Amino acid sequence: MSDDLSMRLESYLRKKLDQPSLRVSDLARIPGGASRETYRFRANYGGADRALILRRDPPASLIETDRTTEFRAYQAFHKLGLPVPEPVALELDGAALERPFFVMEEITGCEVASILNPDPYGKDREKIGRQFWSVLGQIAKANPDQVGLGDFEGARDPKEAWHHEVARWEKVIDEDEREPQPIARAAIRWLKRNPPPPAQKISVVHGDYRTGNFLFNGAGDIRAILDWEMAHLGDPLEDLGWALDPLWAHGDPTHPAGLLARADAIATWEAASGLKADPAALAWWEVFASLKGLAIWISAACEYAEGRNTDAVNAFSGWYCLAFHNKVLAERLSA
Amino acid sequence: MKPEVDQILGISSGTLMGSLVPLLPNTFAIGSASLLGIMMTFAAQEYERGADIRAAENADMRTLFREAVSQVTDEKLKAEVSMAAATEDRSLKISALNAENTELRRVLIRLQAYAEEHGDRTLQRRIWDVLKASADRRLLRLG
């Protein structure tokens, strides 16, 4: 299978990059979530050896995401100078490798934090934390039209951003829940009854900005923000609320993402974005974050239970993460 | 049965993650096998508690419905709450407990929405007590 995939990828890249003698080697699957199959490989052409990543659609995807969105987000923020891999090729036609895919630069010599690791950053916690919250602020600060992403899916009216996202994730729950979810339903009603103020601006929202979705090296430098597949337009507080969620806190919610203390994290984001994290508005987006989490985990459980995508990540998400966010929301909403 | 299923799963998970995963050739295989090991520890927890937490949750909801039925003025909902309160778990099979749980949860969702619409804070608090207890029981331990 890998040999066949390797040959087909080589054939595709020879044509796409106009490099008739290009050679693909060392193709190997690596962990990369349940919504894309991820492979690393080397491509030798033009006298150089390049480390690249292939991200291919699986037979069924966890959340229906558009690989064009992910590819264009990489293009836009790579150009802007943020730590993002350089995109190389996007193929929407399934003829070459059976399913759509894209190819991008591999950032080598780095690691990804597991959410199960209680102290993934060690002595570099503060240094990585400053970068993590600052990069998120820079994403929030970017003008979607100026970076070429003004046509992304999402809300364009600051007053509509919250409603657009609640409707989006309520629909996912409506379609994918295999058993009634009283806490998710209570959260949806609460979010609708207590809307936040309009967004300060419409930003590109990464959609899954969190610990575990960036690469860092041994010197404590963030080298790549990954997994832009849920990127859209919306309220920049959406990303902040998601990144602050206790599921990503490595067991210590006082240090969201396992990095800086909460107040320091928010101040770093504010300084980089030029925006304010109004406490009441942020509290709403944090409830929303846990509801969005529930929707994703419900969808993961559905994919697994119905046999469309039996990646163990889906079983873990639909079991552990679902139970975790039910508890978070029950505590928040009953207070 | 000795050894119990949870013990077998726990030891098997330890063997998988401690002895077999280090022998695997690449990061994808290591990551996938490690996650399967974690699933086995979850399954061990669920083997011991699965029937108990479902029976307790179903009992909590029925008790709540018995207490709440007199406060519901909507006739259709009142009938649903009353009927749900009178059900019982006839089997301790997980599938049977889940089927009961699904029906009870449907009524609970409607009752909670009703309590919110009517500003019945006492009933809302009581429902949240049931939901918090359910969320606590279903939480999984890592390691």
Structure, explained:
Chain A has 335 residues and is an alpha+beta fold. Chain A has 9 helices and 10 strands. In chain A, strands 1-2-3-5-4 form a 5-stranded antiparallel beta sheet, sandwiched between helices. In chain A, a hairpin with a 4-residue loop joins strand 8 and strand 9. Chain B is mainly α. Chain B has one domain (5-138). Helix content of chain B is 78%, strand content 0%. Chain B is built from 5 helices and no strands. In chain B, helix 1 (5-20) runs antiparallel to helix 2 (27-68), helix 2 runs antiparallel to helix 5 and helix 4 packs antiparallel against helix 5. The model of chain B has no long low-confidence stretch (mean pLDDT 96). Chain A binds chain B through residues 28-31, 116, 179-183, 185-186, 189, 193, 311-313, 315-316, 319-320, 323-324, 326-327, 329-331, 333-334, and chain B through 26-28, 31-32, 35-36, 38-39, 42, 98, 101-102, 105-106, 108-109, 112-113, 116, 125, 128-129, 131-132, 134-136, 138-140, 142.
Summarize the structure.
Chain A has 335 residues and is of the alpha+beta class. Chain A is 43% helix and 16% strand. The radius of gyration of chain B is 21 Å and the shape is elongated.
CATH superfamily of the largest domain in chain A: Aminoglycoside phosphotransferase (APH), C-terminal lobe
State the order of secondary-structure elements of chain A, H for helix, E for strand.
HEEEHEEEHHHEEEEHHHH
CATH architecture of the largest domain in chain A: Alpha-Beta Complex
Classified by CATH, the class of the largest domain in chain A is Alpha Beta
Structural class label of chain A = alpha+beta
Largest sheet: spatial strand order of chain A: 1-2-3-5-4
Most strands sheet of chain A:
5 strands, antiparallel
Query: What is the count of DSSP helices of chain A, taking H or I runs of 4+ residues?
Result: 9
